[in-house]
Amino acid sequence: MMRIAIDARIAHYTGAGIGQYAIHLAQALARLDRTNQYVLLQSRKDRRTLVDEPHVQRRSIWTPSHHRWEQEALAAEFKLFPALRRLNLDLLHSTDFIPPLRLRGFKSVITVHDLAFLRWPHFLTEESARYYGQVEAAVERADRIIAVSESTKNDLVKLLGAPRDKITVVHEAADPLYRPMTRAEALASIGSKFPLPDRFILFVSTIEPRKNIATLLLAYRRLLDSYKSDVGLVLAGATGWLADQIFEKVEQLDLQRHVTFLGRVQNGDLLYLYNLACCLAHPAHYEGFGLPPLEAMACGTPVVVSNVSSLPEVVGDAALLIDPNDDEALAVALHRILSDESLRDSLRTKGLARARTFSWERTAQETLAVYQAAWQQPGDAL
């Protein structure tokens, strides 16, 4: 029997992406595995009970999951290690890939979601570059690495020289709440909470340059000018790094009357937005996995994505793929979906089938196998 800690501190700081990964994984493992003991590490500011099972203990951690300054990070991580030692762990899973500076006494598994900060360093602020600059040491120290896609695994090998046999690909999954709804049901549920146009293209992700919103805006401008479309563009997501240039682009293209920024949206409301949208546009330059396309497909919403990084791996043949640098191709793809009912029906059917191939139960099973491999590996992590 193992005593396993899952670092879910980041769930307090972000309700999307890695935060959701940590929560859903912990919940799925608790349902699947009643042999091992689990310790869920949560921020001391997070008062929620994320997992309510007798074999899962909650531990509040004072050290935050991200640090603003390098000196503070160093001091905080040295405070974290003694707290972990008192838990008598066999294994620590760092869901946001950065483990403590000291790892003696227990095995280390890390999840690497993407290496966008290495592929696209010009999209980083100085602070984030310092934080993510720890990735090389984290990869070297970990006993086992989980990559959320084959694309991320290949990047780990190519960019950091990580041994292939140390990396296991374990896909993420959509939240089970995402499902098809009738338009009437979605409208009744969301009410007048958001200022939504009758018909709209949806974008869901953090508002930052890496998501390639500039190309989406150019394509949308083409859609209005060349195809005389009456569809709106709705962007749901928290403001991220270097977002000002995106808001400036909206003004440069004279799209203020057509584009709606909703800010961060809760998962429950995203369910209704996906179901109300004509399609989801996700032209990101790079994704380690890309949950929004999978969530949209689970709702039966047609999807357009970039043909790069992990996105083709996630959507298979259930979406339209475009070059992320080609705004004209994106405009054409969006017009096809908006104007071709048979194409929409085909993408809906394929998308629903594709989404069903991913599940948190499967993610938990494959993650548990990684834990067991790390535990049986001889020697202590350094």
Offer a concise description of the structure:
The chain is of the alpha/beta class and 382 residues long. It has 15 helices and 13 strands.
Features:
seven-stranded parallel β-sheet; 13 strands; alpha/beta; 42% helix; six-stranded parallel β-sheet; 15 helices; 382 residues
Can you offer a commentary on this structure?
The chain has 382 residues and is an alpha/beta fold. Helix content is 42%, strand content 16%. It contains 15 helices and 13 strands. The strands form 2 sheets. The chain has a 7-stranded parallel sheet, sandwiched between helices. Strands 10-9-8-11-12-13 form a 6-stranded parallel sheet, sandwiched between helices. Helix 6 (150-160) links the parallel strand 6 (144-147) and strand 7 (167-169). The protein is globular. The two termini are 23 Å apart.
Architecture blueprint of SSEs:
Elements: E1 3-7, H1 18-32, E2 37-43, E3 56-61, H2 70-85, E4 91-94, E5 107-112, H3 116-119, H4 126-132, H5 135-141, E6 144-147, H6 150-160, E7 167-169, H7 183-190, E8 200-204, H8 213-226, E9 232-236, H9 244-252, E10 259-263, H10 267-276, E11 279-282, H11 291-298, E12 303-306, H12 311-315, E13 320-322, H13 327-339, H14 341-355, H15 360-376
Parallel strand pairs: 1-2, 1-4, 2-3, 4-5, 5-6, 6-7, 8-9, 8-11, 9-10, 11-12, 12-13
